[in-house]
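Changelog-linked ticket: adenosine-5'-diphosphate-glucose example.
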Amino acid sequence: MKEAIMSSSAMIVVSNRLPFILREAEDGTLHRKQCAGGLVTAVAPVVVESGGLWVGWPGIHLEDPDVAIPESDPEDKSPTAGLKSKQVLTVNFDEDVFDSYYNGCCNGTFWPLFHSMPDRAIFKAEHWADYKTANRLFAEKTIEALEQMYAEKGDELQLDDEAPLVWIHDYHLMIAANTIRQVAEEKNLRCKLGFFLHIPCPSWDIMRLFPWDDEILQGMLGCDMVGFHIEDYCFNFIDCCQRRLGCRVDRSNMLVEHGGRTVRVRALPIGIPYDRFKTLAASAPQEIADSQQIILGVDRLDYTKGLVNRIRAFERLLEKHPEYINKVTFLQVAVPSRTDVKVYQELKEEIDMLIGQVNGRFTTPMWSPIRYIYGCISHEQLAGFYRDAAVALVTPLRDGMNLVAKEFVACQNEEDPGVLILSPFAGSGAQMMEALLVNPYEIDDVAETTHRALTMEVDERRLRMACLRRREKAHDVTYWLRTFLKEMGTLRMEDGDSVRPTQLMPVSIQDFDEYLRDYIRPTDRVALLLDYDGTLAPIAKLPELATIPVETKRVLERLANISSVNIAIISGRSLADVRGMVGVGNITYAGNHGLEILHPDGTKFVHPVPSEYESQLGYLLQALQDRCCRDGAWVENKGVILTYHYRQVPSDKCETLVAEAREIFHKYGFAPSMAHRAIEARPPVRWNKGRASIYILRTLYGLDWQEGVRVLFAGDDATDEDAMRVLKGMAVSFRVTAMSSVRTMANRRLPDTDSVLMMLKWVERQMAAAPRPRRSTPPTGSSPPREKVLQYQMSMEEKEMQHIMANGRGRGRGGGVGTTRPTATELPTGA
Ligand code: ADQ
């Protein structure tokens, strides 16, 4: 086969099921059983020929998970026959977890939801938890597969081009990629990650019904490339990423920025092994009498496939065109599917009953209108049915692609072909436009279209079928694989091959036109609430090294001079520290996550902290210094907040050290707040960046600030989420993050501090468009304004907390409150 030659990488396929299932014989031995399905038909030959690996569930719960997988039967002619047992890695489950993951979440939630049938979807937190467990198990097994591949192929895989290609399939495994990526990076197992969704990707309106949709989207974005059957699904996905996650996207090049990477989104319409079906059709025995015209339906028995509507449409055809009685037969072949699920059992009963009704109503002594095969048939027999049918009714209510339509086309006789009737709600309906397209919900229309197909002149049939065949021959499964490899960058390129852009351009000022143009007009008053570290200044190894870029400082200075703009910088640093680091006049500074706020006019706000708190903090500091300041970890005392930094601790020592530190926090009565590779002790007061933001807005603009002020907030960590939550709906917020999976209340994500600079520049450009008087600026470096301290009234709750603190646990031994940390000059080489 050509496939293996074309790829420069070995391939690991990860799918819910292996391409065959295992069955136990009476004597207890295992054997393989083939099963029908789009994915297997398409991908198995590729893995076989390329000597790749396949990770999946074997179809039964094995008592011994290490039992040897049997080799295939020598008589086996299926696409998976050549797959050696050493190429297979099984994922094994606890039965209850599997049931909840597979029947509960995959088939009870995602299958109906992604097919835009939300009424049928069940949302349960337990199912979702088991889905996560299952995805983790698949990810772990994939890591084993990578290790096996590296052990066999050695260093050659380290080359960029040769890195193994991990191809994750379908809705069962939407959140496996991030775990694979993270562990593979830790273990230095280079690989490329691709995902393909075989079912439709629904619109944002439907996707958002799933309570954990952000985790699904971020899971898929863990890959380098995400593939769908058709462009419509790609645009739905891009839309979801933009609207739900706030990602920056490029629709024209189909790119999404997330977790500090650019993810390619591609339409890769699956094809069939065209030549194989053509050959099968040429030799398949004839089983249908020439005197009969056959209307054929072939499906898995599933509510998305529209079987009920199809049977009703056939009944309508016989009602309206009795001339077909005794002459036309509807042959429906249905593969049993998900037979242990109630809705599928009910569907089967409904179909049995409906077929009985129609047959009871129209059967004559020599003829019955519907023949119904409930079972799996061989591809050879299937090819014979396709070839001999006059009409194929492929009328799903919703379908990712639908391979039956393509297989039917491949099996046609060129001289006397049949007619394909196709639903526009299948992915294939978007491609195979020479078919007769019909809305499956319109029963009358389906009946009339079937009549039209049965009576279509041979010229028109030939013409339509020739176009359909040409496309399917050219865009067969090999072509699909080729486009996949090309998009993954593992195709050995030939003349004429070209690759579309794979990187988004860096964030520019124009990006903010789209985000903010409707929100901020030049005549508006604007409040900019900004975090410092990781937002205005790139994160550095030591706090004093995190300096503000000169350009950012200049823009802030100019913005601070515009009378309709107010800036507040709200940081976890102490007030004096953040003020010193930014060094721009005429703006509000808030330190210690807003516990201290200093306005440009000198008014100062200080949130009181419980009297016992400071001494308690002293004990904590001492204990941390004594026991946890090693391997590069150190403690920073910011007055009312204490931060334990472990940024420089080697990763293999981190876990133990962090656990020890957390224990000490708890021991002294502090809830450890996790920050960027740091743990903080904060006073037990209900005050955070959210409340501080509201306080600042109120002091700047008065109580009704929301009526006339446009607020922008930008921050990069969990403490900023407090502000984003409080300001939700009253501000546009940006989360600066390069992490692969982050839950955020922000409207948008930005990749880095440079993009925050672009946002500031956009505001400057926008506000500069309206002429207005400038503020008089205090000279840079002038002495700080005289401070007028505003007292804060402590609430009952805060008084209560103060009391708890004063009588609380963990009175350790005393110790001076001070700061110990390495200075910049003590940094290890290369820091
Ligand atoms: P399926 O929902 O399984 O696949 P489909 O594309 O129609 O749907 O593929 C069914 C396959 O099963 C075909 O190859 C067909 O030949 C075979 N088959 C059907 N009935 C059979 C029978 N009675 N005996 C033997 N074989 C039978 C999912 C998505 C689809 C998408 C595919 C591939 O739901 O939308 O097209 O994956 O991506």
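Closing comment: Example verified and attached. The longest strand covers residues 293-300. The pocket of adenosine-5'-diphosphate-glucose is lined by residues 36-39, 41, 198-199, 270, 298, 300, 333, 335, 376-377, 382, 399-404, 407 (CB under 6 Å).
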